[in-house]
Amino acid sequence: MRHTKRLTLTAFSLLLATTAPWVFGATLTNGPWTATLDGTGPQVIAYKGEPIIRRGALTGFLPEWKGGRFFMDGSQLTTTETTATWHKHVEGNQEALLKLELTPKGCRFSLDTTITAAGPSEFSVEIAPEAVRTVEDHCFVWMDGEPQFLDLVGTFPATGGINELRFERADRTVTVRCTGFQMQDRRRGGGDMFLVQVIGSEGVEPRKASASIEIEVQEADPATSEARGVALSQKPRDVKDLPVANPGFESTKLLDSWTENPLASLDTATKHSGRQSTRLTLREDVAKREHVYLIQNVPVREKGLYQAMAWIKSEQVEAAQVGGMSPTGATIIIEFADKQGKWLASGSYAGGLYGTTDWRWVATEVAQAPPGAGSAVIFLALRGIGTAWFDDVALSEVNQHVIKLSPLPGQRVADNTPTFNWHYGWKTPATLELCQEVSFPAEKVISIPKIESLPIALEKHIPPGKWFWRVRVPDHDVVSTAWEFAQTVDLTRDTTEPKIEHTYGWLSNNQPIRIRYSDNVGVTRVRLTVDGQEVSSQVRWSKTIATFAPQRGWTEGLHKVLVQVSDAAGNTAERKLFFTHSKPRPKTVWQQVGGVKTGGRKRFLFGMYGVRIQDMQEIAAGGFDFVHNYQWDGPGTNEEALRYLDAAQKNSLQAFIGIWRQQLMKGNEEFVAERVGALMNHPGLFAWYLYDEPDIQFQYVSPEWLTRYYKLIKALDP
């Protein structure tokens, strides 16, 4: 089909370059894609007339987000038949070029900017929920290959480090490609779902940055739409509200059903709903440990999953240790007590409010009641100095469901060692069960227990015929529904994929990479791509090993190797492996007693957490050796980490660098490898900080994955 391209400008000429703040009615069209423009960026990007993006924007902010400093209004707009660019330059502040490109297959919205002033810049698009919703109450989306469910009735937490989103509906997939963006839910503030890239600037020297967002829509095969609809309509969880006594503090008796606190009072002037709320004010001269909480126990069951929530407002809340406890601000906490009411186990803290804020809905992560639990303990907390109001407290029991992904119901599978995939919103081992009878009699069930990594392929062949499969989660007493599929090939057919070993390592200049693999019959073809370039013709390989070394030696840094191996039956396996090369550096050995030894020199280290660049001179003067910043446990970029290491080296310090915990939870080995490859040669780097407290469920990473990460880092940076 030949697509027509046209540009409609109702008030301006075809090719327009203007500094006017608005270009009312400008529209681009290319195939099924249209875009409506104004003087600051694209207003609506639509596919077949349905809005996918409602707004694309760039805004620069003052440090610590204290107001705006750069806006795209008044920018120079230039258009062609299929593109639009917005350019604006404010001397001493920021220069930015936004560009929108439409093709018959999709669109690309990009930014190139140079920031001179201090303060963050936000490059964003607003995603229309109705365009990507799977069913009425949620979106099913693959985030960098991991299945996620975005709640469209309630809220969902922000997720960062995103490179690809695939929103699934029965009839289509909307794919969004970007680099290191964050998905945010701003609907409670009057917005929608936002995809955001934040670019920081310290204002010391100009910072150049670029970012882009690409969007495509792929129509589903009509033959699979019914099965896709069944799969995508699965509910990830049910939520049951539990009774909390006096949740809105409407009782005339002060703190009825809550623990006593002489610094708390009822407030009829400030409330979220009803007649009143409770107010807690702490001053440094009178606050004690017993004053920081309002507490209530609510009965729960063992192994259940629970989440506590409340509306909270704050006024001039400052971080302070009250009664020796670390500050959390104004927040809500859930923990657990035994059947006699004695404290049993920790649970989850919600993010705390500081400063002065209006009413905000604050929720803990989901926490599991341990064996022996009889009640959830709700803490309304002000661990700090200032005033907090609490209202409309709630406690929910969350029933997670197994979301089966493949094989789809009724699917015909030409594979006698089929692959299975599912999603469960809690990190815990699962058991796969297969049977040729829907009743799953115990003596006829094939069971594969303790599965933590997905997808999983059977190792033993199953005969052709009708099969049912389901998933059991023993730790939560959860069993999924059963789906039927048909296995269509006989037992003698070779449908087993080759296996490629996890192979990572540091390489000397001309050292070849060695990749090992195996197959039940034997590998007949090897394909190798190194850093995006196919080098298969230069690979030496046998049935079990392949080797490759570049003619001119390895360049410094990370090398990504994509390996594909096939057998005679056409079964193919693929894996991405990582290698590094650098000049040899002094090795640090941790001593059993007495600190570390580097280059034969022993040192006992004196370190400090939470150190900012502007603090380093003072920290160094205080005699510290090395520093840490929690930015690297979160969404801090490698570029920002390099600047941190530069500053550490300048101040005769070294740093230990963490790795974004959300990426560790996702199983993102490529993110870990990229961080190691980017920073490993910097003399300001002292050590890698992998993880602590992995047993806290909302940040859970299994021992299996922690071991994999440790081995990966150790191999790449010896």
Layout: helices, strands, pairs:
Blueprint: E1 5-8, E2 17-18, E3 27-30, E4 33-38, E5 41-47, E6 50-61, E7 68-71, E8 76-79, E9 83-90, E10 94-103, E11 106-115, E12 121-127, H1 129-132, E13 138-143, E14 146-151, E15 159-168, E16 172-185, E17 193-199, E18 207-219, H2 225-232, E19 237-242, E20 264-267, E21 277-282, E22 293-299, E23 305-318, E24 329-338, E25 343-349, E26 355-363, E27 367-368, E28 373-383, E29 385-400, E30 403-406, E31 412-413, E32 419-423, E33 430-435, E34 446-451, E35 456-457, E36 465-473, E37 478-479, E38 483-487, E39 499-500, E40 505-507, E41 513-518, E42 523-530, E43 533-534, E44 540-541, E45 545-548, E46 557-567, E47 572-581, E48 588-590, E49 596-598, E50 601-603, E51 607-608, H3 616-621, E52 626-627, H4 638-650, E53 654-658, H5 661-666, H6 669-679, E54 685-689, H7 703-716
Plain-language structure description:
The protein has seven helices and 54 strands. The protein is mainly beta and 718 residues long. The radius of gyration is 28 Å and the shape is globular. The strands form nine sheets. The chain has an 18-stranded antiparallel beta sheet that branches. Strands 19, 20, 21, 23, 26, 27 and 29 form a seven-stranded antiparallel beta sheet that branches. Strands 31, 33, 34, 36, 37 and 38 form a six-stranded mixed beta sheet that branches. α4 packs parallel to α6 and α6 packs parallel to α7 (703-716). Mean pLDDT is 90; it is low at 1-23.
